[in-house]
Write a structure and sequence with these properties.
The chain is an alpha/beta fold and 548 residues long. It has four domains: 170 residues, 3-Layer(aba) Sandwich (Rossmann fold), CATH 3.40.50; 61 residues, Helicase, Ruva Protein, domain 3, CATH 1.10.8.60; 138 residues, Zinc Finger, Delta Prime, domain 3 (Up-down Bundle), CATH 1.20.272.10; 123 residues, GMP Synthetase, Chain A, domain 3 (2-Layer Sandwich), CATH 3.30.300. The protein is built from 25 helices and ten strands. The strands form two sheets. Strands 2-3-4-1-5 form a five-stranded parallel beta sheet, covered by helices on one side. It has a five-stranded mixed beta sheet with strand order 6-7-8-9-10. Helix 16 runs antiparallel to helix 18. The protein starts with a helix and ends with a helix.
Length: 548
């Protein structure tokens, strides 16, 4: 039977542990001078060597002839521990043995002397999974165990351990292994196993492992199953990576508002059976690199990139402001959380999020507002006219916008535009402004009143359908004399996107709930308010500046 490479290449001495010299040097000194502790706590992310070091330490304290703090691997004690025949070294998985009875068994056993070895060693993996009662049962034994007992606790979530447990142990924090160390170790394994791999492919595997040696070796084992040269293309195909060049193309498409390329990238990911969540995590990683390039004077120190890749990233970062990059990163992270939900359709989440990234006006968050203000400040500082971020902002609309910007706004105009956005505020009858009037295509005048329960309906839509809710939030809501609801969108694109993927059905359901009556789709009127700007007073100020 084939043995997995990560098991075959598990380190057997402290010198073979990669990237944890700050820990192994101390453990070697303690073993060599017989000054080891009665309880150890190994904490860190997965695949960084916690369990391996625990097993090596169990061998080292029982080794009959240790070599400079390392177990010899040849004596009877080392051989019995390696084969799993040593009854005095007990490894327990706290994830499946987390009850108080399991700890009571250990507490009752520690009083007995070891049967064959010098020390009885208890390795408790994933110790954070123990129940509160189990922790309480372990406390006294962990603080003052018999002289022939050593406890080694390992965990990936230190914050879940009680402070009383942590204070009774000698704590070691395992760091994520650097990409360079991972790559070099993968190349050594590949050479010994006669696996053909390029250095660039090994670098990609090391980056994707995110600091975990076990993950890196497992990915190498997966790619080696093809029994041919492991290059960049094979790694991308096997692991499901999109390739950095394609991700950079997506970022450029977002900057240029190139919707065709955006939909093409998502479609290609789906058709190639790659996981969209993996593609999304890689995109977030690219934005992280862009933020570092934008805000750091020495980005090379924090980026695992070649000089050419860094130079390309610097050019892409010039397309965005720091505020816009922050806004994009926030909605990317929110979308990743949405994708993890059981009923989330990942493709739809990805497409709608990328569309929102192209147009900051589709979001009313503070970060999107800061991004728009930053774009205006940059344009004013450079003396260049600011281009509107609205999809429908063409040359034909600009004269009308300039006229509206030049026209002083009276109180009624401010009320008419801000009223639909008022959330949680009530207006006294004595000071309430009159309803807005508008003329239909047939010439008849209709009376439109702000829809009072807009905030409640939007809140319900955000919970039920977070993908289309932002489009409805950017629209103006009115109620006419016939009992229908008129939705006025700032552009044709916003109107079309609001109806996508059943958004109109979600709107009808939300309105029915807040009104307490059955609301029908025929009572909804979708309109494109091409001649007016959506938003409040701040929006109007920003949009007037964008036109000028």
């Amino acid at each position: 039977m084939h043995q997995a490479l990560y098991r075959k290449w598990r380190p057997r001495t402290f010198d073979e542990v990669c990237g944890q010299d700050h820990i192994t040097s101390i453990l070697k000194y303690e073993v060599a001078n017989s000054k080891f502790s009665h309880a150890y706590l190994f904490c860190g992310s997965r695949g960084t060597g916690k369990t391996s070091c625990a097993k090596i330490l169990a061998k080292a304290v029982n080794c009959l002839s240790p070599e400079n703090g390392n177990p010899c691997g040849k004596c009877a004690a080392c051989l019995s521990i390696d084969s799993g025949a040593a009854t005095d070294v007990l490894e327990m998985d706290a994830a499946s043995n987390n009850g108080v009875d399991n700890i009571r068994d250990i507490r009752d056993e520690v009083v007995y002397s070891p049967s064959n070895l010098k020390y009885r060693v208890y390795i408790i993996d994933e110790v954070h999974m123990l129940s509160q009662s189990a922790f309480n049962a372990l406390l006294k034994t962990l603080e003052e165990p018999p002289e022939h007992v050593v406890f080694i606790l390992a965990t990936t979530e230190l914050h879940k351990l009680p402070a009383t447990i942590i204070s009774r142990c000698q704590r070691f924090d395992f760091r994520r292994i650097t990409t360079e160390i991972l790559r070099n170790h993968l190349l050594d394994i590949a050479k010994a196993e006669k696996i053909e791999i390029t250095e660039s492919a090994a670098t990609i595997l090391a980056k994707h492992a995110q600091g975990g040696m076990r993950d890196a070796i497992s990915l190498l084992d997966l790619c080696a199953g093809s029994r041919r040269l492991i290059d960049d293309a094979l790694v991308s195909e096997t692991v499901g990576l999109g390739g950095r060049e394609k991700l950079i193309d997506v970022v450029r498409a977002i900057a240029k508002k190139d919707y065709e390329k955006i939909f093409e990238a998502v479609d290609e990911t789906v058709r190639s059976s790659r996981d969209i969540a993996v593609f999304w995590q890689e995109l977030i990683s690219v934005y992280r690199d862009l933020l570092i390039v934008k805000n750091s004077k020495e980005p090379q120190r924090y980026l695992d990139l070649t000089d050419s890749e860094t130079e390309e990233l610097v050019g892409v970062a010039k397309l965005f402001s720091a505020e816009l990059l922050t806004y994009h990163t926030e909605i990317l992270s929110d979308a990743l959380l949405t994708m993890t939900r059981a009923n989330a359709v990942r493709r739809i989440v990805a497409e709608l999020t990328l569309i929102r990234m192209c147009d900051a006006k589709l979001s009313t968050s503070q970060s999107s507002m800061l991004a728009r203000i930053s774009a205006l400040e940059s344009a004013i500082a450079s003396g260049v006219k600011a281009a509107s971020t609205a999809p429908g902002a063409n040359a034909e609309e600009r004269p009308a916008r300039r006229a509206r910007a030049a026209k002083p706004a009276d109180d009624d105009d401010v009320f008419k535009e801000d009223a639909p956005r008022a959330v949680g505020r009530s207006v006294a009858p004595a000071t309430q402004k009159p309803a807005a009037s508008s003329q239909t295509n047939g010439g008849a005048v209709r009376t439109l009143k702000p829809f009072k329960k807009r905030a409640e309906a939007i809140e319900i839509m955000c919970r039920r359908d977070p993908m289309t809710a932002p489009f409805y939030k950017s629209a103006k809501w009115y109620a006419d004399e016939s009992g229908s609801i008129v939705l006025k969108f700032g552009s044709k694109d916003s109107l079309d996107r609001a109806k996508m993927f059943g958004g109109d059905a979600s709107f009808v359901a939300a309105v029915s709930q807040v009104l307490g009556t059955q609301f029908t789709p025929s009572q909804v009127k979708f309109e494109c308010e091409a001649e007016q700007k959506s938003g409040g007073l701040i929006d109007r100020i920003i949009e007037a500046a964008e036109d000028n």
